[in-house]
Amino acid sequence: ASASASASASATSARERRRSHSTHRAASRARASAIASSSKKRLEVITFDLDDTLWPTTPVVNAANEALIDWCTERLGQTFPKTPVVHAAMKLVREERDAQARARGDAAAEPMSYAAIRIAGAVRAARACGIPEHDAVAVIARGYHLAWIPTRNDMARRLVFPGVREALASLRETYPNVTIGSITNGFGSATGAGLGEFFDFEISAEALIDEHMVHGEMARKPHAYPFQLAMGIACGDHGYSGDADTWVHVGDDVLNDCYCAKQLDLRTVHVKDPNVNPYQSGGGAPYAETSMRGAVEADAASHVDGVVTHVRELPELLATWYA
Fold first, then answer.
1. CB 57 within 8 Å of CB 192
2. Is the C-alpha dihedral spanning 233, 236, 237, 238 positive or negative?
3. CA separation (Å) from 84 to 65, 80, 136, 150?
4. Strand, helix or coil for residue 25
5. Is 286 helix (H, G, I), strand (E, B) or coil?
6. Which site among 59, 71, 195, 272 is 20 to 30 Å from 161 CA-CA?
7. Is the N-terminal amide bond of 222 cis, ω within 30° of 0?
8. CB 86 within 8 A of CB 59
9. Could you give the CA distance from residue 285 to residue 282 in angstroms, rounded to a whole number?
10. Residue 119 burial (CB < 10 Å; 0-12/13-18/19+)?
């Protein structure tokens, strides 16, 4: 009886294993079928992050920072502070504003744009060096627009990663009806970098904060608002169907790009170049980034659909997803 029971148990176990393998094969076939079905869809929208995705941020922004210092030094004298002193003052401005907000009973001050905090920090640093406030405000504000911004655009144009222009041209040729946009937390611009011919729209957190009075945390990724705004533009101006599987977002940051896009179920491509060191903001990172980054990056696989080392590899990857 014991042998019979053992044989019966073995037979049952074998049947269960066969059922398990069959179920696993069926699930694999279903996933493959879903991927194949998705790949046959028409690619409707591609959005790109800009900084550290299409060009390296650190040398671009460092050059712009030094251009501002040179501009101000020429007009206000050699006592004008250098970039590290300005960065320290920017952090002090942020800390003081947050302390003042807490004293009012608020959790934190409303975030300023990077442009505003750089100007405020530079003015504070200049005053500490004995430069009159009205002189500092006038020269620094003008210098930001006449030196910092043009230098940033010029350096981005010079330092666009190899193959980016060719990849964008290839996407335009392969998917002639695709809508291409950019979504950036900074002041970068595809148009400013000489890539405007490939883009249908651009969304900059700096413009949302300063021009449209959108709250700083809401204007910046990883908040979903920039992507929601992009969806509105794509639907209203370019006929986007609303099918998330036909929208791909491409960026170097797991949190600000892949996680953020996944909140709206978009497909994501992580540009993971080991030779690019992410830019460290002189004024400090936004609260959402510092509070969420560790947990999101630890679970990167949940937010990333595809990985490339360079944007020049993107056309080949998309060819496996879309007809």
1. no
2. positive
3. 10, 12, 17, 21
4. helix
5. coil
6. 71
7. yes
8. no
9. 8
10. buried
